[in-house]
Amino acid sequence: MPLEIERKFLLEAFEPPETAVRQHIEQGYIAIKDDGTEVRLRRIGGSCVLGVKRKASGVGSPVRIEVERELGEQEFTELWPATEGARLVKERYTFDASGVTVYADVYQGELAGLRTVEVEFGSEAEAAAFSAPEWFGAEITGVKAYKNQTLATGGLPNS
Predict the structure, then answer these.
(1) Are 118 and 100 in contact, with CB atoms under 8 Å apart?
(2) Which residues face 154 on adjacent strands?
(3) By the 8 A CB rule, do 115 and 104 touch?
(4) Which residues are catalytic?
(5) What is the DSSP string of 99-154?
(6) pLDDT at residue 59, as a whole number
Protein backbone atom coordinates (compact mmCIF):
# COMPACT_ATOMS: atom_id res chain seq x y z
CA MET A 1 0.00 0.00 0.00
CA PRO A 2 1.56 3.37 -0.98
CA LEU A 3 2.11 5.47 2.14
CA GLU A 4 2.66 9.20 2.42
CA ILE A 5 4.69 10.21 5.47
CA GLU A 6 5.17 13.95 5.63
CA ARG A 7 5.57 16.92 7.91
CA LYS A 8 4.26 20.38 7.00
CA PHE A 9 5.35 23.84 8.14
CA LEU A 10 4.42 27.46 7.53
CA LEU A 11 6.83 29.73 5.68
CA GLU A 12 6.99 33.40 6.63
CA ALA A 13 9.09 34.52 3.69
CA PHE A 14 10.24 32.52 0.72
CA GLU A 15 12.56 33.16 -2.17
CA PRO A 16 12.97 29.98 -4.25
CA PRO A 17 16.54 28.97 -4.95
CA GLU A 18 17.72 28.96 -8.55
CA THR A 19 17.80 25.16 -8.44
CA ALA A 20 14.07 24.88 -7.62
CA VAL A 21 11.74 23.21 -10.11
CA ARG A 22 8.48 25.20 -10.38
CA GLN A 23 5.11 23.59 -11.11
CA HIS A 24 1.69 25.19 -11.39
CA ILE A 25 -0.96 23.16 -9.54
CA GLU A 26 -4.74 23.34 -9.87
CA GLN A 27 -6.40 21.11 -7.29
CA GLY A 28 -10.05 20.37 -6.61
CA TYR A 29 -11.90 18.00 -4.33
CA ILE A 30 -14.70 15.71 -5.49
CA ALA A 31 -15.33 14.24 -2.03
CA ILE A 32 -14.17 14.94 1.51
CA LYS A 33 -15.30 12.70 4.35
CA ASP A 34 -15.41 13.58 8.06
CA ASP A 35 -12.57 11.14 8.77
CA GLY A 36 -10.30 13.11 6.41
CA THR A 37 -10.57 10.77 3.43
CA GLU A 38 -10.45 12.77 0.22
CA VAL A 39 -10.88 12.25 -3.49
CA ARG A 40 -9.17 14.96 -5.48
CA LEU A 41 -8.35 16.02 -9.00
CA ARG A 42 -5.04 17.68 -9.69
CA ARG A 43 -3.48 19.23 -12.75
CA ILE A 44 0.22 19.53 -12.06
CA GLY A 45 2.49 20.58 -14.85
CA GLY A 46 1.24 18.68 -17.90
CA SER A 47 -0.31 15.81 -15.95
CA CYS A 48 -3.88 15.23 -14.75
CA VAL A 49 -4.29 12.97 -11.73
CA LEU A 50 -7.14 11.48 -9.71
CA GLY A 51 -6.04 10.79 -6.15
CA VAL A 52 -7.46 9.27 -2.99
CA LYS A 53 -5.91 9.87 0.42
CA ARG A 54 -6.95 8.47 3.77
CA LYS A 55 -5.48 8.11 7.22
CA ALA A 56 -3.57 4.88 7.72
CA SER A 57 -5.21 2.96 10.56
CA GLY A 58 -3.12 2.34 13.63
CA VAL A 59 -0.36 4.68 12.49
CA GLY A 60 0.72 8.18 13.56
CA SER A 61 -0.68 11.44 12.21
CA PRO A 62 1.95 12.13 9.52
CA VAL A 63 1.10 8.85 7.76
CA ARG A 64 -1.62 8.49 5.12
CA ILE A 65 -2.40 6.03 2.37
CA GLU A 66 -2.26 7.75 -1.02
CA VAL A 67 -3.28 6.22 -4.34
CA GLU A 68 -3.06 8.22 -7.57
CA ARG A 69 -4.03 7.42 -11.14
CA GLU A 70 -3.21 9.46 -14.21
CA LEU A 71 -6.18 10.77 -16.20
CA GLY A 72 -6.44 11.99 -19.75
CA GLU A 73 -7.22 15.67 -20.31
CA GLN A 74 -10.78 14.87 -21.42
CA GLU A 75 -11.47 12.80 -18.28
CA PHE A 76 -10.09 15.60 -16.12
CA THR A 77 -12.23 18.20 -17.93
CA GLU A 78 -15.34 16.06 -17.50
CA LEU A 79 -14.75 15.62 -13.74
CA TRP A 80 -13.50 19.15 -12.92
CA PRO A 81 -17.02 20.71 -12.53
CA ALA A 82 -17.61 18.28 -9.61
CA THR A 83 -14.95 20.22 -7.65
CA GLU A 84 -16.82 23.57 -7.78
CA GLY A 85 -16.46 25.31 -4.40
CA ALA A 86 -13.56 23.10 -3.32
CA ARG A 87 -10.54 24.27 -5.32
CA LEU A 88 -7.16 25.86 -4.83
CA VAL A 89 -4.26 27.03 -6.98
CA LYS A 90 -0.63 27.12 -5.98
CA GLU A 91 2.89 27.27 -7.32
CA ARG A 92 5.09 24.44 -6.04
CA TYR A 93 8.86 24.76 -5.82
CA THR A 94 10.77 21.50 -5.37
CA PHE A 95 14.40 21.51 -4.32
CA ASP A 96 16.92 19.87 -1.99
CA ALA A 97 17.75 21.55 1.30
CA SER A 98 19.03 20.38 4.67
CA GLY A 99 19.55 16.86 3.28
CA VAL A 100 15.92 16.37 2.19
CA THR A 101 13.66 17.17 -0.76
CA VAL A 102 11.52 20.19 0.05
CA TYR A 103 8.14 21.06 -1.48
CA ALA A 104 7.38 24.76 -0.97
CA ASP A 105 3.87 25.87 -1.94
CA VAL A 106 2.95 29.49 -2.64
CA TYR A 107 -0.84 29.74 -2.77
CA GLN A 108 -2.71 31.93 -5.25
CA GLY A 109 -6.14 33.56 -5.53
CA GLU A 110 -8.16 33.67 -2.29
CA LEU A 111 -5.30 31.94 -0.48
CA ALA A 112 -2.67 34.46 -1.63
CA GLY A 113 -0.12 35.19 1.07
CA LEU A 114 -0.09 31.64 2.43
CA ARG A 115 3.17 29.75 2.02
CA THR A 116 3.87 26.25 3.30
CA VAL A 117 6.65 23.72 3.04
CA GLU A 118 6.40 19.93 3.22
CA VAL A 119 9.00 17.23 3.56
CA GLU A 120 8.20 13.58 2.77
CA PHE A 121 9.95 10.69 4.49
CA GLY A 122 10.51 6.99 3.89
CA SER A 123 9.56 6.01 7.45
CA GLU A 124 7.95 7.32 10.61
CA ALA A 125 11.35 7.15 12.32
CA GLU A 126 12.86 9.46 9.68
CA ALA A 127 9.96 11.88 10.12
CA ALA A 128 10.35 11.90 13.90
CA ALA A 129 14.14 12.41 13.68
CA PHE A 130 13.91 15.33 11.26
CA SER A 131 15.01 18.69 12.67
CA ALA A 132 13.45 21.49 10.66
CA PRO A 133 15.88 24.14 9.46
CA GLU A 134 15.66 27.62 10.94
CA TRP A 135 13.93 29.09 7.88
CA PHE A 136 10.91 26.78 8.33
CA GLY A 137 8.13 28.35 10.37
CA ALA A 138 5.69 26.77 12.80
CA GLU A 139 4.88 23.12 12.27
CA ILE A 140 1.32 22.52 11.04
CA THR A 141 1.44 18.77 10.44
CA GLY A 142 -2.04 17.42 11.11
CA VAL A 143 -3.57 20.86 11.76
CA LYS A 144 -6.96 20.64 10.03
CA ALA A 145 -7.12 24.39 9.21
CA TYR A 146 -3.99 24.03 7.03
CA LYS A 147 -4.93 20.84 5.20
CA ASN A 148 -5.39 21.53 1.49
CA GLN A 149 -8.94 20.15 1.56
CA THR A 150 -9.86 22.65 4.32
CA LEU A 151 -8.11 25.52 2.52
CA ALA A 152 -9.98 24.65 -0.70
CA THR A 153 -13.39 24.63 1.00
CA GLY A 154 -13.00 27.14 3.85
CA GLY A 155 -10.27 29.55 2.81
CA LEU A 156 -7.49 30.95 4.96
CA PRO A 157 -7.44 30.11 8.67
CA ASN A 158 -8.43 32.96 11.00
CA SER A 159 -5.14 32.94 12.87
Answers:
(1) no
(2) none
(3) yes
(4) 29
(5) TEEEEEEEE-GGGTT-EEEEEEESSHHHHHH----TT---B-TT-GGGSHHHHHHH
(6) 52
Q: How many CB atoms lie within 10 A of CB 152?
A: 22
The set of long-range contacts for 131-139, using a CB threshold of 8 Å and a minimum separation of 24, is: 132/7, 132/9, 132/98, 133/97, 133/98, 135/11, 136/9, 136/10, 136/11, 137/9, 137/10, 137/11, 137/12, 138/9, 138/10, 139/7, 139/8, 139/9
Segment holding 5, helix H or strand E: strand 3-10
Residue 2 three-state SS:
coil
Q: How many residues does the chain have?
A: 159
Q: What is the pLDDT along the chain (159 residues), one digit of tens a residue?
A: 578 889 999 998 889 999 999 999 999 999 999 888 999 999 998 899 999 998 876 555 578 889 999 999 999 999 999 999 999 999 999 999 988 999 999 999 999 999 999 999 988 899 999 999 999 999 999 899 999 999 999 999 985
pLDDT value for 1: 59
Specify which residues 54 forms β-bridges with. Answer: 65
Taking Cα atoms as reference points, which of 5, 3, 12 lies closest to residue 133?
12
